[in-house]
């Protein structure tokens, strides 16, 4: 059997690996999804937290909420093995939100893991917050996250991105966009926001399963070609 098909299949497998690996590396920081959403709407924010240590697990995640443009409502989605606490407190200064003066608002959300639920090496966990209503279009919401490891170290993801180059410990950030007709109406309530987030999550999972299927299929092709070549050379 000619060697070229075997080499071609191997190259295809390597190519697929090059597509998958950078996407994984680019997700190594704590980030928030979606990174843009409509002003005045309710939405579900997903914080994706990877464990970046080989010899320690992630046991706690604290998310700081904005105080200059506070969120009136913050709800949490249960995560098996984790407790969630929304901490409310006084704002540094009163803020006007849709005609009402607010002096207190949610300030922090604390997620704490049981021993069995901690995020291990090579793993990540997602934490969802239902928030709203969002402030005016053009507002950048900085949502610093603080990641505590089982060895006692704390990594602060709190640096704002001010230019094209990403800082060493970038904070999760949400840019509020202008409301656009049906898009605004669809997320104008907590129930609609939760439904939209569930649909988006399913689509994202489907994409990853599709990529994984391509990699497995390419590997199977290489194995089949190698086996066939061995049978051809046998007397």
Shape estimate: globular
**Annotated CATH homologous superfamily of the largest domain:** Uncharacterised protein YcnI-like PF07987, DUF1775
CATH fold descriptor of the largest domain: Immunoglobulin-like
Q: What portion of the residues fall into strands of 2 or more residues?
A: 25-35%
What is the highest CATH level, the class of the largest domain? Mainly Beta
Quaternary state, please? single chain
Assign a percent range to the helix content: 25-40%
Describe the structure.
By secondary structure, this protein is of the alpha+beta class. The chain folds into 2 domains: 1-28 and 200-235; 35-161 and 168-184, Uncharacterised protein YcnI-like PF07987, DUF1775 (Immunoglobulin-like), CATH 2.60.40. It is 31% helix and 34% strand. It is built from 3 helices and 12 strands. It has helices spanning 4-26, 182-186, 190-233; strands at 31-33, 36-38, 43-50, 58-64, 73-76, 82-97, 100-113, 124-132, 140-142, 145-149, 154-157, 173-177. The protein has a 5-stranded antiparallel sheet with strand order 6-7-4-10-11, with no helix packed on it. A 4-stranded antiparallel sheet has the order 1-3-8-5. Strands 2-12-9 form a 3-stranded mixed sheet, with no helix packed on it. Strand 6 and strand 7 (100-113) form a beta hairpin. The two termini are 14 Å apart.
């Amino acid at each position: 059997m000619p060697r070229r098909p075997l080499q071609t299949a191997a190259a295809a497998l390597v190519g697929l690996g090059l597509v998958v690996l950078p996407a994984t590396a680019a997700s190594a920081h704590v980030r928030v999804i979606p990174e843009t959403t409509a002003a005045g709407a309710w939405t579900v924010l997903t914080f994706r937290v990877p464990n970046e240590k080989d010899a320690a697990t992630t046991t706690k995640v604290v998310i700081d909420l904005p105080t200059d443009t506070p969120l009136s409502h913050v709800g949490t989605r249960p995560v098996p093995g984790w407790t969630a606490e929304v901490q409310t407190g006084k704002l540094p200064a009163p803020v006007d939100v849709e005609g009402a003066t607010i002096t207190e608002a949610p300030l922090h959300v604390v997620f704490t893991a049981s021993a069995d639920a901690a995020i291990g090496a090579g793993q990540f966990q997602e934490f969802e917050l239902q928030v709203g209503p969002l402030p005016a279009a053009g507002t950048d919401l900085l949502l610093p996250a603080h990641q505590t490891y089982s060895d006692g170290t704390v990594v602060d993801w709190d640096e704002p991105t001010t230019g094209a180059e990403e800082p060493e410990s970038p904070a999760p950030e949400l840019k509020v966009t202008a409301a656009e007709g049906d898009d605004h109406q669809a997320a104008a309530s907590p129930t609609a926001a939760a439904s939209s987030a569930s649909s988006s999550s399913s689509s994202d999972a489907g994409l990853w399963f599709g990529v994984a299927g391509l990699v497995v299929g390419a590997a199977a092709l290489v194995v089949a070609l190698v086996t066939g070549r061995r049978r051809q050379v046998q007397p």
